[in-house]
Design goal:
single chain; globular; 6 helices; Rossmann fold; 5-stranded parallel β-sheet; alpha/beta
Length: about 160
């Protein structure tokens, strides 16, 4: 196993993000995982969704990740709350003694990322540990196919 992926923090925003991250990670050797969902608090402003709704999305994301990586994967899950998502991820990585933070790219145009404050940029520029950016398997395969399937020789 690569020491870089020995103890990794995987920030996941929701079930789709968890699925994309699992696809990107599935063909790599990795050790322990801290699957992390950060619930961003508005810092005095009204939140976009209730904490309960966001916690439910986090649980769905964790279930998706665990299902895709399989029962043999060493996965710890955690929900954290903070006003700065990147800083909250860094704190979790410190507490987990992570060897790296592993992310997959998320959609959105450059302008959208620029205007909304790109957490990925903060993760890459403000960190004290390696950040591994895995390719988005869906965007790498223009067909969106997860891989070969066996049709059993039957006509569709």
């Amino acid at each position: 196993m690569n020491d870089l992926l020995d103890r990794i923090v995987l920030p996941v925003a929701g079930p789709d993000d968890a699925a994309a991250t699992a696809r990107a990670l599935s063909d790599r050797d990795f050790g322990s995982i801290l699957a992390l969902n950060v619930i961003e608090k508005a810092g005095g402003a009204p939140d976009k969704a209730s904490v309960e709704q966001r916690e439910a999305v986090a649980e769905e994301a964790f279930a998706e990740l665990e299902a895709r990586l399989g029962p043999g994967a060493d996965i710890e899950t955690q929900v954290r709350y903070g006003t700065d998502v990147a800083e909250t991820i860094f704190d979790a990585a410190d507490d987990f003694d992570a060897t790296a933070i592993v992310i997959t790219p998320r959609g959105g145009s450059r302008w959208v990322r620029l205007l909304t404050g790109d957490v990925a940029l903060s993760l890459v520029t403000d960190t004290d540990r390696p950040v591994v950016v895995l390719p988005d398997v869906d965007s790498a395969d223009p067909t969106g196919d997860d891989g070969p399937t066996d049709s059993g020789g039957e006509d569709e």
